[in-house]
Amino acid sequence: MSDSLPPCPACACEYTYELGALLVCPECAHEWEPKTADAGDDVIRDSVGNVLADGDTVTVIKTLKVKGSPTGIKAGTKVRNIRLVQGVGDHDIDCKVDGIGPMQLKSSVVKKV
Question: Are 74 and 93 in contact, with CB atoms under 8 Å apart?
């Protein structure tokens, strides 16, 4: 069982074990969230953990203020044909919102349809 689990990042102990959603080191008591094998640094997930890909359709989960727009983007707005990018800060979705225009969104404020 410990063969498939990574060693402790704090003390390099190889006897780590799972405790719910966390990994635990029995020697130093360090707890951390595991990185899944399919979730490298380049995987982008939505607000509920679904993996996003280019061309997906997403729904905005909360009302967003947009500079230069009196209404902004309302919760429930569908955004089609997204493109994943390494944007400014943590904005990682490049898209075109109907009525607003092209912009970048954070993956934490959208949900995959």
Answer: no
- Specify whether the CB–CB gap between 93 and 84 falls below 8 A: yes
**Nearest-CA neighbor of 22 among 30, 34, 11, 10?**
34
pLDDT in tens, 50-107: 999 999 999 999 999 998 888 899 999 999 999 999 877 889 999 999 989 999 999 9
The DSSP bridge partners found for residue 18 are 23
Amino acid at 10: A
